[in-house]
Amino acid sequence: MRRITRIATVGIASTALALSVTACGSDSSSGSGSDDNGGKAAIAYDIGGRGDQSFNDAAYAGLVEAEEELDVQGTEAEPSEGEGDPDKVQRLTTLARAGNNPVIGVGFAYAPAIAEVAPKFPDTTFGLIDDTSKTGPNIANLVFNEEQGSYLAGVAAAKVTESDTVGFIGGVETPLIKKFEAGFVQGVKDTNKDVNVKVQYLTQPPDFGGFSKPDLGKAAAQGQLDAGADVIYAAAGLAGAGAIEATANAGKWAIGVDSDQYEQEGLAAYKERILTSVTKNVSGAVFNLIKSVQDGDPQNGEIRYGLEDDGVALSLSNPAFTEMTDVIEAVDKAKADIIAGRITVKTAP
């Protein structure tokens, strides 16, 4: 297996230094030549970076798979605290100049930067996860039907709750996260209209700290628990880990997001109370894009993943969940109805 180079970027002024920093035992930077037959590919992380036990870690898993299966040399680039679009532009430019192809921006925050950088490197494919607002001949927009998976989570929550009160925590109030809210609330209400859904967002744009601060998620979850919620679904990146901690410590059910959080090592202490997770196959989307480049037929335009191709799903890792036969039957029926078009899930509250 090839070793992944990890670049820690802290703004434009430190780019030269960043190019000399590596991790995972590698002794060559992403700017050096490579004798890898599979070429080079890079991912630039979203807020929270690798180790969020969720969105970024799912992208990392796709890069690791590409290393193992495609003989690709992978490079990771971390975000800096409070950075702006110029920092992202510099990061993507650095990765593209180093010969990485594709270069993947993990999260909608990279949309303006990719729109600026991609035309300057027409022979490089740029992946943009969770955004379709910026397009181009060498841009692949990797997007998901988050509302569909969230609907299934709502069905499960409505079936499991004993207090008839459940909670949704969004990291930052953006159109993307409101898709999670919309699907979850609809799934709850379609299953049991008498269940109360408490909704809270941690921050408002341009403050994106709601994706990176576990204490915010923990406090929000505690507030919902105090108000009677016994199932809490958080779509909040690293802050969601704090919500899971508070919910698990209270002996209530948490629903994870993006990755199968029951299986995340960093959340092992709380796994028994992670009922399920709304997974997005970000790892598969990253791998597929890298493979398309290696195959000489790069993906471009909108590449959408939904329930029908397991691009979104509910995880079944927790035995306590799979033993709830009536809940699983309700989830399976809802999934079949969505795929068949009998249920249309809203993308906004």
TrEMBL record:
Primary location group: membrane
UniProt key word Signal? yes
All copies of domain ABC transporter substrate-binding protein PnrA-like, residue ranges: 46-335
The cross-references to SUPFAM superfamilies, in alphabetical order and at most eight, read: Periplasmic binding protein-like I
Species, as recorded: Streptomyces sanyensis
The residues the entry assigns to the signal sequence are 1-23
- One Pfam match: Bmp
Q: Which family does it belong to?
A: Belongs to the BMP lipoprotein family.
How is it placed in the membrane, per its record? Lipid-anchor
Q: Which UniProt keywords apply?
A: Cell membrane, Lipoprotein, Membrane, Signal
Protein name, per record: BMP family ABC transporter substrate-binding protein
Q: Where in the cell is it found?
A: Cell membrane
Fetch the InterPro entries from UniProt. Answer: BMP_lipoprotein, Peripla_BP_I, PnrA-like
